Amino acid sequence: MERVTPFLMFQGNAEEAIHFYTTLIEGSEVVMINRYGPNEVGEEGSVKQAVFSLKGQEFMCIDSNVQHEFTFTPSFSIYLTCDAEKEITHLFSSLLEGGKELMPLADYSFSKKFGWVVDQFGVSWQLNLP
User: Fold this and answer.
1) Residue 105 φ then ψ, to 5°
2) Do 31 and 9 contact (CB within 8 A), yes or no?
3) What is the rounded distance in angstroms from the CA atom of residue 18 to the CA atom of residue 60?
4) For residue range 27-79, what is the model confidence (pLDDT) as tens digits?
5) Which is deepest, 34, 38, 56, 60, by most CB within 10 Å?
6) Which residues contact 78 (CB under 8 A, 6 or more apart)?
7) Contact call for residues 61 and 52 (beta carbons, < 8 A)
8) Which helix (H) or strand (E) holds 113?
9) Strands 7-10 and 124-129, sheet pairing
10) Would the pTM of this model clear 0.90, i.e. be above it?
Protein backbone atom coordinates (compact mmCIF):
# COMPACT_ATOMS: atom_id res chain seq x y z
CA MET A 1 0.00 0.00 0.00
CA GLU A 2 1.42 3.33 -1.04
CA ARG A 3 -0.82 5.73 0.92
CA VAL A 4 -4.28 6.41 2.30
CA THR A 5 -6.18 9.34 0.78
CA PRO A 6 -9.50 10.74 2.03
CA PHE A 7 -12.08 10.89 -0.80
CA LEU A 8 -14.97 13.37 -0.92
CA MET A 9 -17.95 12.96 -3.25
CA PHE A 10 -19.80 16.18 -4.05
CA GLN A 11 -22.91 16.68 -6.15
CA GLY A 12 -22.01 19.52 -8.47
CA ASN A 13 -19.97 21.84 -6.25
CA ALA A 14 -16.60 20.05 -5.88
CA GLU A 15 -14.59 22.78 -7.60
CA GLU A 16 -16.19 25.50 -5.49
CA ALA A 17 -15.37 23.52 -2.32
CA ILE A 18 -11.78 22.86 -3.42
CA HIS A 19 -11.12 26.55 -4.05
CA PHE A 20 -12.82 27.56 -0.80
CA TYR A 21 -10.70 25.13 1.26
CA THR A 22 -7.38 25.85 -0.46
CA THR A 23 -7.90 29.61 -0.21
CA LEU A 24 -9.01 29.44 3.43
CA ILE A 25 -6.28 27.15 4.76
CA GLU A 26 -2.75 28.49 4.41
CA GLY A 27 -0.22 26.08 2.90
CA SER A 28 -2.83 24.37 0.72
CA GLU A 29 -3.08 23.90 -3.04
CA VAL A 30 -5.04 22.46 -5.92
CA VAL A 31 -2.91 19.62 -7.27
CA MET A 32 -5.03 18.72 -10.30
CA ILE A 33 -8.55 18.92 -11.67
CA ASN A 34 -9.79 16.64 -14.43
CA ARG A 35 -13.20 17.63 -15.86
CA TYR A 36 -15.86 15.76 -17.78
CA GLY A 37 -15.82 16.54 -21.48
CA PRO A 38 -18.60 16.48 -24.07
CA ASN A 39 -20.47 13.20 -24.45
CA GLU A 40 -19.08 11.74 -21.20
CA VAL A 41 -21.27 10.36 -18.40
CA GLY A 42 -20.87 13.44 -16.15
CA GLU A 43 -22.04 16.99 -16.76
CA GLU A 44 -19.56 18.69 -19.09
CA GLY A 45 -17.08 20.80 -17.13
CA SER A 46 -17.87 19.21 -13.76
CA VAL A 47 -15.14 17.52 -11.72
CA LYS A 48 -14.40 14.01 -12.94
CA GLN A 49 -11.56 13.70 -10.44
CA ALA A 50 -9.52 16.22 -8.48
CA VAL A 51 -6.72 16.21 -5.96
CA PHE A 52 -6.07 19.01 -3.52
CA SER A 53 -3.78 19.35 -0.54
CA LEU A 54 -4.53 20.92 2.86
CA LYS A 55 -1.33 21.48 4.85
CA GLY A 56 0.32 18.58 3.02
CA GLN A 57 -2.59 16.11 3.42
CA GLU A 58 -3.92 15.14 -0.01
CA PHE A 59 -7.64 14.66 -0.65
CA MET A 60 -9.35 13.32 -3.75
CA CYS A 61 -12.82 14.37 -4.81
CA ILE A 62 -15.39 14.15 -7.58
CA ASP A 63 -18.72 15.54 -8.63
CA SER A 64 -20.92 12.46 -8.61
CA ASN A 65 -22.64 11.94 -11.95
CA VAL A 66 -25.20 9.72 -10.16
CA GLN A 67 -27.87 11.33 -7.99
CA HIS A 68 -28.11 9.60 -4.62
CA GLU A 69 -29.95 10.06 -1.34
CA PHE A 70 -26.87 10.22 0.90
CA THR A 71 -24.39 12.98 1.56
CA PHE A 72 -21.62 13.70 4.06
CA THR A 73 -22.12 12.82 7.71
CA PRO A 74 -20.46 14.34 10.81
CA SER A 75 -19.34 10.85 11.86
CA PHE A 76 -16.39 11.50 9.52
CA SER A 77 -14.69 14.87 9.85
CA ILE A 78 -11.55 16.74 8.95
CA TYR A 79 -9.60 17.49 12.12
CA LEU A 80 -7.40 20.61 12.13
CA THR A 81 -4.94 21.46 14.87
CA CYS A 82 -4.48 25.23 14.91
CA ASP A 83 -1.48 27.21 16.15
CA ALA A 84 -3.14 30.41 17.35
CA GLU A 85 -6.37 31.88 18.67
CA LYS A 86 -6.72 34.16 15.64
CA GLU A 87 -6.34 31.18 13.27
CA ILE A 88 -8.98 28.98 14.94
CA THR A 89 -11.44 31.87 15.24
CA HIS A 90 -11.03 32.79 11.57
CA LEU A 91 -11.34 29.19 10.34
CA PHE A 92 -14.37 28.48 12.52
CA SER A 93 -16.29 31.58 11.42
CA SER A 94 -15.39 31.03 7.74
CA LEU A 95 -16.40 27.37 7.75
CA LEU A 96 -19.61 28.21 9.63
CA GLU A 97 -20.84 30.64 6.93
CA GLY A 98 -23.76 28.85 5.29
CA GLY A 99 -23.09 25.80 7.47
CA LYS A 100 -24.12 24.52 10.89
CA GLU A 101 -22.47 24.57 14.31
CA LEU A 102 -22.22 21.17 16.03
CA MET A 103 -20.14 22.34 19.02
CA PRO A 104 -19.50 26.01 19.70
CA LEU A 105 -15.96 27.31 19.73
CA ALA A 106 -15.12 27.16 23.44
CA ASP A 107 -12.78 25.95 26.17
CA TYR A 108 -13.43 22.26 26.84
CA SER A 109 -11.75 19.95 29.35
CA PHE A 110 -9.86 18.21 26.53
CA SER A 111 -8.83 21.39 24.69
CA LYS A 112 -8.00 25.04 25.35
CA LYS A 113 -10.32 25.89 22.44
CA PHE A 114 -12.32 23.53 20.25
CA GLY A 115 -15.20 23.82 17.80
CA TRP A 116 -17.04 21.49 15.43
CA VAL A 117 -18.85 22.72 12.34
CA VAL A 118 -20.45 21.38 9.17
CA ASP A 119 -19.60 23.71 6.29
CA GLN A 120 -21.79 24.96 3.43
CA PHE A 121 -20.88 21.85 1.39
CA GLY A 122 -21.86 19.40 4.15
CA VAL A 123 -18.29 18.50 5.15
CA SER A 124 -17.66 18.21 8.91
CA TRP A 125 -14.65 19.96 10.52
CA GLN A 126 -13.25 19.69 14.03
CA LEU A 127 -10.96 22.59 14.95
CA ASN A 128 -8.62 22.34 17.92
CA LEU A 129 -6.28 24.75 19.67
CA PRO A 130 -4.36 22.58 22.19
Assistant:
1) -70, 115
2) no
3) 10
4) 999 999 999 999 999 999 999 999 999 999 999 999 998 888 888 999 999 99
5) 60
6) 6, 54, 123, 124, 125, 126
7) yes
8) strand 111-118
9) unpaired
10) yes
